[in-house]
UniProtKB/TrEMBL annotation:
Organism in which the protein naturally occurs: Taxus chinensis (Chinese yew)
Taxonomy of the source species: Eukaryota, Viridiplantae, Streptophyta, Embryophyta, Tracheophyta
Keywords: Motor protein
Example of a GO MF term: microtubule motor activity
Residues annotated as domain Kinesin motor: 23-119
Alphabetized Gene3D superfamilies for the sequence: Kinesin motor domain
One Pfam family per UniProt: Kinesin
GO BP terms, alphabetized: microtubule-based movement
PANTHER family registered for this protein in UniProt: CENTROMERE PROTEIN E, KINESIN-LIKE PROTEIN
Family: Belongs to the TRAFAC class myosin-kinesin ATPase superfamily. Kinesin family.
Designated name of the protein: Kinesin motor domain-containing protein
Length: 119
């Protein structure tokens, strides 16, 4: 009888089984250049596809030498989602946040951390 009670108590203190997994999603939205940036700067960001962003070296004077020496200053970054400058904040919301709403309504937790420079 004591063994049965102990077994029952051990079963009751176990955490409930959950089929929900924890997911971390990272998305980036590349903003369009301002008029001032377009006139004075070179665009060094390129959204290659819906997951990849390419960042070029801003010093264009080295381009020729780097190509001749077969060295690339380009950096490649992968995300769950990469949004090009021409896409809207609504596109970002629809793709990244809207799918979480149903789970939140059903009692699941969700955290959205958004960071961006404003000016």
């Amino acid at each position: 009888e004591i063994r049965t009670l102990t077994s029952y108590m051990m079963r009751s203190i176990r955490p409930p089984e959950s089929k929900q997994t924890t997911t971390l999603l990272v998305a980036v939205k590349c903003r369009p250049l301002t008029a001032r940036e377009e006139s004075k700067c070179r665009d060094i960001l390129k959204v290659a596809d819906e997951k990849v962003v390419l960042v070029s070296d801003p010093d264009s004077s080295k381009d020729y030498l780097d190509r001749v020496q077969n060295r690339s200053k380009e950096k490649i970054y992968a995300f769950d989602f990469a949004f090009a400058p021409q896409l809207t904040n609504r596109d970002v919301y629809t793709t990244t946040i809207l799918p979480m709403i149903g789970g939140v309504i059903q009692g699941l937790n969700a955290t959205i951390f958004a960071y961006g420079a404003t000016g």
